[in-house]
Design a protein that fits this description.
With about 120 residues, this protein is mainly beta. The chain is built from 2 helices and 11 strands. Strands 1-2-5-8 form a 4-stranded parallel β-sheet. A 3-stranded parallel β-sheet has the order 3-6-9, with no helix packed on it. It is elongated.
Length: about 120
């Protein structure tokens, strides 16, 4: 049995060590050539603590992130999509912001400011 080769799909597995060394920018983790393909598929291979970010690229038509049963957590935003292509989230892992507290200033009447 042969496996068909799909030439317009960039497939990248994401581990914690790749996120630490590349600040979580998915385009950088995929690599220059692969990140220019129109379909981007990213699959977590383990739990990730940090922010995963997809930067804008006109070549992108579809972006898929498969949690693959692993959790993506961060004390801020765990996922940032700066691309004009929609990001599709698949899998049964959790994507969670772990921020548990914040300050509120103002009286609640008129303008109220919420900050870290």
């Amino acid at each position: 049995m042969s496996i068909p080769l799909v030439s317009n799909v960039g497939f990248t597995e994401i581990s914690q060590s790749l996120v630490d060394s590349n600040s979580g920018v998915l385009n950088d983790i995929a690599g220059t050539d692969k990140s220019k393909l129109p379909v981007q598929i990213f699959k977590l291979t383990e739990a990730i603590s940090g922010n995963l970010q997809m930067n804008a690229d006109a070549a992108h038509k579809k972006i898929i992130l498969d949690t693959n049963g692993a959790n993506l957590t961060h004390s801020g935003s765990p996922l940032t999509n700066n691309s004009s292509a929609a990001l599709e989230l698949r899998g049964n892992g959790n994507v969670q912001n772990l921020k548990t507290s914040f300050n509120v200033s103002g009286s609640g009447i008129g303008t109220t400011t919420i900050a870290d």
